[in-house]
Write the structure tokens for this entry.
Amino acid sequence: MDPSGLNDEACINLLLDTLKDHETIKHLSLHIQNIRPADQKETSLMKSLQKHGFISRLCISSSLISREFTEALIYASKEQSTLTYLEFYNCKVKKDDKAEMQSLYDNGSLPHLAFYEEPRWDVLLKETNGSLNRAKTSIP
């Protein structure tokens, strides 16, 4: 999906509603921005994570993560084993919720988990610059 992140609620709702019945879609990677407790984005994502197992990679940016949403993320990774990749960029996550997700990572239920204080593009730019600098030093 769009690496800049989906932000439009209507688009996200339509996408998730369309894909839930699509038999050939087994794994979906999403980058969603600006999720707020009890908003339509959160509600649609929670429903998809709990009832339809096609979201396997999820990047979340600039969002407030509720306990209910955390429970849906935990369910998708622990109970359904469908969510395997989860990253948070510039998000507010409660300490207890973060610790619970970290324990899923530690016991192998969630193979990839990362929390970043910075916006996603800042992190990606730093990683890209680091890779370029390493490549320059290895070229004779």
